[in-house]
Design goal:
The protein is an alpha/beta fold. It has one domain: Rossmann fold (3-Layer(aba) Sandwich). The chain is 43% helix and 24% strand. It has a 7-stranded mixed sheet, with helices on both faces. Helix 4 crosses helix 6 and helix 5 runs parallel beside helix 6. The longest helix is centred in the last third of the chain and has 20 residues. The relative contact order is 0.24.
Length: 173
Amino acid sequence: MRPNLTLILGGAASGKSSFSEQLVVSSGKNRTYVATSQVFDDEMRLKVEQHIAQRGTGWTTIEAPFDLSPALNGMTRNQICLLDCATMWLTNHLLAEHDLKREQTAFLDLLQNCPAEVVVVSNEVGQGIVPDNALSRRFREAQGRLNIAMAAQADVVVQVTAGLPLVLKGQLP
């Protein structure tokens, strides 16, 4: 039996997205990619284009930088969703000065109640130095709390470092 919620953690450019995409493709289910990034500059535009090319065909893409409910509530059991990534989603809410606790609660409820299998990509940001400014420290703390909550709810948690997966919880299908 495949898990309903899989959390893939890793640092920036660790290979977590590629690993997650392979995991989703191997399911054989109808694939939906929920993109949470917002494109504000050419660097981000290029990164998005590279991710699209890397995924290839066979994906339905939904852009949802803030409200994930239409995407996740519209899923069915024969689908699998790759949500990439929780870090960008959280950043969007933080910079928009939304109530992070309320948004996190709603997000976790959506994950819990989604009928489809969901794979969430998130950055592990707590292994570096203490940031030198209040906004960065607030983000690091919020991301840590979100990751802890998602990991508690997830059936499977995988840490990806240098493209190599390490299962921290559960078992990969």
